[in-house]
Amino acid sequence: MGEFRMPSLGADMDAGTLVEWLKRPGDRVKRGDIVAVVETQKGAIEVDIFEEGVIERWLVEPGTTVPVGTPLALIAGAQPAAAVAEAEVAAPAAPTPAPAAPPTVSPVPEPRTGMSRPRVSPAARRLAAERGISLDQLIGSGPGGTILHADVERAAAGAAPRPTTAKRLDLAEMRRAIAAAMARSKREIPHYYLSTTIELTRSLAWLEETNSTRPPAQRLLLAALLLKAVASALGEAREFNGFFTAEGFQPGAGIHIGTAIAIRGGGLVAPAIRDADKLTLNELMAQLRDLVARARSGALRSSELSDPTITVTNLGERSVETVFGVIYPPQVALVGFGMPVERPWAVAGKIATRRVITATLAADHRASDGHRGALFLADIDHRLQGPETL
Amino acid sequence: MTRDDVAAMLIDELGRIAPETDASRLDPNAELRDELDIDSMDFLNLVTALAERLTIDIPETDYPKLATLGHVVDYLVQRLGVAARAVTSSEQPEPHHRGPPSLGRESS
Hints:
The complex is a heterodimer. Chain A is α+β, with helices and mostly antiparallel strands.
């Protein structure tokens, strides 16, 4: 028997409020399934599960605030991922819920509270969040009254209220979370800072050429190249990828880049792009697009917030040249990119104008030294000079 | 599709990107990126949505023409006119048509 617990979504979180169950007792779940929605300082977060099994029962009612680590549900047959294959063979023995009419959902619309909340497909939930549609007002047409993507689409076609960030994101709470994490960072982490200017001529020319033959939906942004260059360089700079704990530096199991995303109206989240070093540029761009959209509509997943092994912040256009980052504990490094600018640049003994970007590294001196940091930044530069190999 | 239809579509899409602002009250001469705090990802999403809804191409090299609300409407109206003519001309393909790649492929 396993327990599905209130996750920790960062050093600054000590409690969360269960908003909604997306799976009910009897449902079979596998690693990566979204099981519940939890309200945190970072907004409403979809919580995914790491285990395989069947939900035995709920231990916490929606609306309840509990400390991090509190069991929320019991999972029958939960076992480590290694045993999953056997579990699948044995699946028929597991209690299979009858698909017809779960007793808690009435087909007749009525005020829904607590345990009688409707089931909602993840796609429907996402669309509802995007379009700012309240799920409480919808009548599901799926099995057992489940609200489907099509139901939300119909509601969206009828009246299309604007999504508001305030709906799922409490910006005041987010400000408090940032304050707690950054105060801890400056209290505990002995930061050192390095900076270098990187010529972008080749990267931008390659990007322009690549995008010229693509429809907008498949175009790449410079941000994707920068993230990929950092991810690739981290493969040979492991002391910048991981966590600093009571036992000292712990290298990250993979390269999961926390990507700082500004929230309209203020605030910031840095959800992970997992295994960014193994993604192609196209895959990385698609994930970045998805992540930015979900961060701004307040629909991130718990694992995305707890996974990052390093953070990259990218100021983008209309900003300034240089950012001096504050490390997000317990991570040990933050790579920052400023605004790309055109500057005088020495080329073969002459002055020419070139587009350049300032890359900075804020790193934890307990985990690494400036020499290694300098090599890491120089390697990022080197990789951006060969964009076709990224 | 009239100029007003194009403007309404643009305001609708801007509303998705910057939900906290009332895009219909936007000064047509104001810089979109400054006025609505639009970053490069927002801008790409806007271009993607407009290109898909109007089934036109919006090349990256044309982005500088899309600075203000008024400019975007002008540009889209002009592109829609071009697209309509291109469909007509493709019925009688010229042997050495040298249009943009997406149109050239259809006529070859």
